[in-house]
């Protein structure tokens, strides 16, 4: 068995990836910038200011915004986001995740979070999952965000587990790249077009079955 599972948060443990998108879209529309779900794939997994920068780069007239104005925009997006997730609770944990966490526990496998979000702890609290995690990496922990491997290696280092014995789970291209460059076994949730390089790809979280993930992990090792 591997020694640790490192979970991405948004889009894996709960569907906050959707709220991040809707909040960015609302903020962008107010500037006359249109973003769609295809564009949003590039926003998944990357930090707040990097996301804003990518959105603003769609509109040449946004290039003269000051640092202060950009911070205001990011703040506004976050307020929309917090409003959208206000009523979230344990019922919003995505299908298959609680079973997977439970299987990890049963087999003595450590559990970590590897998130780029400043809201990660708040979201875990809303879901009632904070106590399940042995270690939490969020935006405040890492210097280099995804696709840099640091989010995942920092979790493994804190748990004192070799990277080759970790499994990372992601829904974003940037996060998948981070797991792969950390030399961990990568499990991706989504479609092949956006996530071409996963060691093991499933379409949705309800397909994340512990025994099958372990099978795939051991096959790669063999
Ligand atoms: C994760 C999500 C992104 C989000 C980023 C920053 O990477 O996948 O969609 O923009 O975290 O989140 P924050 O809550 O700090 O704005
Ligand atoms: Mg994600």
TrEMBL record:
Substrate binds at residues 8-10, 24, 43-48, 51, 77, 115-119, 146. Its cofactor is Mg(2+). Keywords: Carbohydrate metabolism, Isomerase, Magnesium, Metal-binding, Phosphoprotein. The record marks 115, 146 as: Important for catalytic activity and assists the phosphoryl transfer reaction to Asp8 by balancing charge and orienting the reacting groups. GO terms for biological process: carbohydrate metabolic process. It is an enzyme of class 5 (isomerase). Its EC number is 5.4.2.6. It comes from the Bacteria. This is Beta-phosphoglucomutase. It comes from Planococcus massiliensis. Binds 2 magnesium ions per subunit. Belongs to the HAD-like hydrolase superfamily. CbbY/CbbZ/Gph/YieH family. It catalyses: beta-D-glucose 1-phosphate = beta-D-glucose 6-phosphate. Mg(2+) binds at residues 8, 10, 170-171. One of its GO terms (molecular function) is beta-phosphoglucomutase activity. PANTHER family: 6-PHOSPHOGLUCONATE PHOSPHATASE (PTHR46193), HEXITOL PHOSPHATASE B (PTHR46193:SF18).
